[in-house]
Amino acid sequence: MISYEDAGRDGGGTDPGGPMGTPQAGANAAADRHAPEGRHADWLELFFDLVFVALAAQLSHRLHGDPGLRDFAVFLALYFPPWWLWINLTVSANIFVDNSPRRRLLMLSAMLCIAVMAASVPEADTDRGSVYALGYAGTRLVLLGLWWPATKYPEPRRVPRWRPLSYCLASGLLWAASAAVPTPWQYVAWAVLIAAEMALLLTAGGHRMPARLDTGHIVERVGLFVIIVLGESVIALVTSADHTWTLRAGIVGALGFVLLAALWWSYFDFGSTSAELMLAKADDQQAYLLARDVGGFLHFFVTAGVLCMAAGLATAVEEADHARLPTGAVWALAGGLALYHSAHAGIALRYGRPPASVAVWAVPGICVPLLVVWGAGRLAPWLVVLLLAAEAIVHLLYARKMLRRRLATAAP
To answer: Distance (Å, rounded) from C-alpha 242 to C-alpha 229?
Structure first.
């Protein structure tokens, strides 16, 4: 399949701008001058991601059925720490290109620690919280091992020792200590520690990085994570259809697949392409800040929205023969889509797009799912999924139309 990045180059260049940062005509020359080297994820990184397949399943399962406000809050609270670890480890692998046994053992150790966190997710808000905290602590120590050699680099790429000591070692020790803190204060301690880590990252501002980010690799890795959560959604559809083997369940499952396919199409034709173009034409510090904000923070909400939809779709298939969906399932499904579009609106604004142009596609993308929530008490499960799939398709068609218009304008 020819990507829209290719189409943009054939038509005289692109610049992220429209729906989900749709490529716009006229700025590809700058991006080409700073094009990334084209490094791809290695086999270790792909193997490492498998533990997040398990984590995604565990987290999504918490929202099956009729989740309440507390369930959504716990889901987000338990999802952010492993997501934060994944981003940190991905950036480390991006900067320190190393296939040595030492690096392999460190990454495999991190994989084991995150597997421990995944196993504890079902009861992490009760009696498995200490195990969850110890898994996180172990991964912070892995990050210390990955970053410590950079403290011995020659200037100006040398990393000050206080940074890995505070960001990795101190944080890891405090997370380990939080395993002994009784609930609910344990969760307060986690929130404070995560906030402290984020503050350290924000104050660093991309200064004194040991190497330039390989922007193409970053975009590919984040895209692969989006594939993981979309894959969890497909698995949820299949397993739920297997448990509820009826015609209506099959119809809802097919409509759910259409919804996921439209999201995949729009994300990888517009979202990932725009990110690569923006990162490629940025200088070192700008690339770091964009990767931090778009890949690290805003994509948390992109992927969280898809995981919510996975749970909602599973329930919709299982409840296909009922007159209505549970309120919590509708919020997971339609609210997840609204969150997904909200995150992409934030990404477009971070790229510098005018708010008015973003609102043209973001407001319908957010409001239509919320209207579905409002009217769900009068809608059959198949109709709920149909309306959301239709919104995603219209969103995709609008993005394609805008791209064709911009390419036609740029053509000689």
So the answer is: 20
| Mean pLDDT, range 31-58, rounded to an integer | 79
What SS3 class is residue 25?
Answer: strand
Residue 23 lies in a domain: no
Tell me the H-state helices in 62-128.
69-95, 101-120
Q: Hey, which residues does 15 pair with through a beta bridge?
A: 24
Q: Are residues 292 and 189 in the same domain?
A: no
CA distance 98 to 175: 28
Can you tell me the distance from the alpha carbon of 35 to that of 15, in angstroms, rounded to the nearest whole number? 14
Domain boundary (172, 204, 236) is at 204
Does a structural domain hold residue 13? no
Q: How far is it, in rounded angstroms, from Cα 388 to Cα 255? A: 9
In a domain, 21, yes or no: no
Residue 340: inside a domain: yes
What number is the average pLDDT over the span 201-220? 77
> For residues 276 and 28, is the Cβ–Cβ distance under 8 A?
no
pLDDT tens by residue, 284-331:
778 888 888 998 999 999 999 999 999 999 999 999 999 999 999 999
List Cβ neighbours of 44 (8 Å cut-off, separation of 6 or more).
99, 103, 104, 107, 108
Place of tokens 């030492």: 102
Averaged over 64-91, what is the pLDDT?
A: 95
Please state, in angstroms and as integers, the Cα–Cα distance from residue 184 to each residue in 1, 124, 129, 130, 131, following that order.
Answer: 51, 12, 10, 12, 15
Q: What is the pLDDT of residue 378?
A: 92
**Model pLDDT, residue 20:** 53
216, two tokens:
């193409």
Q: Please indicate, yes or no, whether residues 249 and 172 belong to a single structural domain of this protein.
A: no
Residues 361, 398 within the same domain:
yes
Looking at the 3D structure of the chain, how many domains does it have?
2
Helix (H, G, I), strand (E, B) or coil at 24: strand
> Would you give the DSSP letter of residue 159?
P
Query: Tokens standing for 109?
Result: 């150790």
Please provide residue 23's backbone torsions phi and psi, each rounded to the nearest 5 degrees.
-55, 135
Task: Tell me which residue range forms the domain holding 364.
Answer: 213-410
Judge if 252 and 393 occupy the same domain. Answer: yes
pTM here?
A: 0.88
